[in-house]
Design brief:
With about 575 residues, the protein is α/β, with parallel strands linked by helices. It has 21 helices and ten strands.
Length: about 575
């Protein structure tokens, strides 16, 4: 089960420096998939810095001329126009830079989210079922979304925080070396105190994510089970549990905000002190108390304006880096869970080299098969069986004995020891994506996306023609109620198929499975939740499909097993194969 879900708040170990460095390096490595975005963002930032220097020079020249020299109107108008042009250019450049930054963050978030989805697909439903949907949504949505500012702002700002101050120092140094020296000496104070204040920020954000995951899981699970909670009169107790999770999340959120505000206050304080020192220096210089720093040329009003205008801009990249520092801590906290899930937690089924399955399906053979969990613990076995093509198998056994485990192994979602071959090729050597394309599955409560009936039916075979679709609706008796709908096949079914009855939804699921050109059909109690009339319709549709495909049906109905070719009875660590019931 995922580490990021099981750890209790009070038992969370702080992320050590080595782990933080590893996660930071991994986050930076992910940026390699967008090679042009970050350099363009840095280039736009440098251009902004250059425009700031030009703007400061124009403004200082204009003020010096108006106060000291009384220039002609043409000169003043020219400087004002130049100033306005630079301001507009800065605005356009900042707009371009923001677009680039957002694009970089969007691209990299999609890239990382796709990695997580691919991992989830490889691990399969056996792993997904170990954790609540709320926790998965936190990982896939909130935690990955919280990487946006790291890629869009923090990474580019790391480079700009060094480059732009150097550019400003180079511009100020020829004007007044004392002002440049003051900026140079005070600049390191900001990153030093930023690090001191930000110590532990990653752990604070990590606790915040775990609190959010727990709250999401609590709320979503209770919402889905609200009828059961009311039935057993547990409303008050469950409300208290949600309230506790909410209060814990509130406390973790306030910890994050407290650290963010403290960091901002420290940065603003030191930047303000540094600018004040520059202002005091020029003030005393104009009073004649200080007579150094001007290279013997005298301190002009232009020099004072130029240095004082650029002083806040000198610290702005460092202040921005400080304000984005929480994005780094937030990203590292999120990356800890993502990295563990992607690389550390689970044994992934290895299937290299990926061999192509020769079709059609002829037989599936298991010899001394032991099915394992993703972390290597034995779930079932050893068992042996041979499944010939076009046979209809009834898989029976008491609840919890391992029927679904066996199906998950056949689907390639669980690792195993021993031998499990498809047409003579080991399953863990096959291209699992190709193998799963040969399988259709119908469960007790199949999921139907909130689209139209047509889209749900053709989900696994989107290129089927209208005649095939019509035939399938006839076989599954969907036409009996579709013809009564104003929009027919294009009728939206709503969330969780709320516009359909249970039997209608199950028939759509059966049609979706049968319209797929598959070799193996797996049925997990497809009529368990249906009334007798609906069950008869579904069984008729499945019976017609069983004539041309290999079918495995998990069933608890032991009263009528005559229509199966073989009965597989699963008991403790053995599989008994019978052609008829004794």
């Amino acid at each position: 089960m995922p580490i990021f879900i099981l750890k209790d708040y009070d038992l969370i170990m702080s992320l050590d420096k080595l782990q933080q460095k590893k996660l930071f390096k991994w986050l930076k490595d992910q940026a390699g998939c967008h090679k042009t975005g970050l350099p363009l963002s840095v280039l736009a930032g440098l251009l902004s810095g250059l425009l700031i220097i030009i703007q400061a020079w124009i403004l200082a020249t204009l003020l010096h001329a108006l106060i000291i020299e009384s220039p002609p109107k043409t000169t003043v108008i020219s400087l004002i126009i130049a100033f306005i042009v630079i301001v507009l250019l800065r605005a356009l450049n900042n707009y371009w830079r923001e677009k680039i930054n957002f694009s970089v963050g969007l691209h990299l978030r999609r890239h990382i989210r796709q990695q997580v989805l691919n991992r989830l697909e490889a691990l399969g439903p056996a792993y997904l079922s170990q954790t609540t949907a709320g926790n998965w949504s936190t990982l896939l949505v909130e935690q990955i979304e919280d990487l946006q500012d790291f890629y869009a702002r923090y990474l580019p700002q790391m480079k700009l925080a060094m480059m732009i101050p150097v550019m400003i120092l180079i511009a100020v140094l020829p004007i007044n070396w004392v002002a440049a020296l003051i900026l140079l000496i005070t600049a390191p104070l900001i990153p030093i105190f930023m690090v001191l204040v930000g110590m532990g920020a990653a752990d604070v954000n990590r606790r915040h994510f775990i609190a959010l995951g727990r709250l999401s899981g609590h709320f979503l699970d209770r919402l889905k089970s609200i009828e059961t909670i009311k039935l057993f009169n547990q409303s008050a107790q469950q409300t208290r549990l949600i309230q506790q999770a909410s209060e814990d999340f509130r406390q973790r959120t306030m910890e994050v905000l407290r650290m963010a505000f403290m960091s901002s206050a420290v940065l603003e304080f030191f930047a303000s002190v540094s600018i004040a020192i520059v202002a005091v220096y020029f003030g005393f210089s104009y009073l004649g108390e200080l007579n150094f720093g001007d290279y013997g040329m005298g301190i002009s009003l232009f020099a004072g304006f130029f240095a004082l205008i650029l002083a806040p801009e000198f610290f702005q990249p460092l202040r921005d880096l400080g304000s984005f520092y929480h994005a780094k801590a937030q990203a590292i906290a999120a990356a800890d869970s993502i990295y563990q899930f992607l690389y550390e937690d689970q044994l992934v089924i290895t299937n290299n080299p990926q061999k192509q399955l020769p079709l059609p399906l002829k037989q599936i053979v298991a010899k001394d098969l032991e099915i394992l969990t993703n972390d290597g613990k034995q779930l079932l076995g050893p068992i042996s069986f041979t499944l010939q093509a076009n046979k209809h198998i009834g898989l029976i056994g008491k609840s919890g004995i391992g029927k679904t485990t066996l199906i998950n192994a056949l689907l390639g979602f669980l690792p195993y020891r021993g031998s499990l071959t498809i047409n003579g090729i080991e399953l863990n050597s096959l291209d699992l994506a190709q193998w799963r394309k040969q399988i259709s599955w119908v469960g007790q409560n199949p999921y139907l996306p909130a689209t139209t009936i047509r889209t749900n039916i053709v989900l696994a075979n989107p290129h089927c023609d209208d005649q095939t679709l019509t035939n399938m609706t006839n076989v599954t008796h969907l036409d009996e109620f579709i013809t009564q709908l104003p929009e027919g096949l294009d009728t939206p079914i709503g969330d969780d198929a709320t516009r359909l009855s249970l039997g209608q939804a199950q028939r759509i699921a059966v049609a979706r499975a049968l319209i797929k050109p598959s070799q193996l059909l797996i049925l997990d109690e497809p009529t368990a939740s249906l009334d007798k009339a609906s069950a008869v319709i579904v069984n008729q549709a499945l019976a017609s499909a069983a004539q041309t495909r290999t079918v495995i049906t998990i069933t608890h109905h032991h009263d009528d097993l005559s229509h199966y070719d073989e009965i597989w009875q699963l008991s403790e660590d053995q599989l008994i194969v019978r052609s008829t019931l004794l």
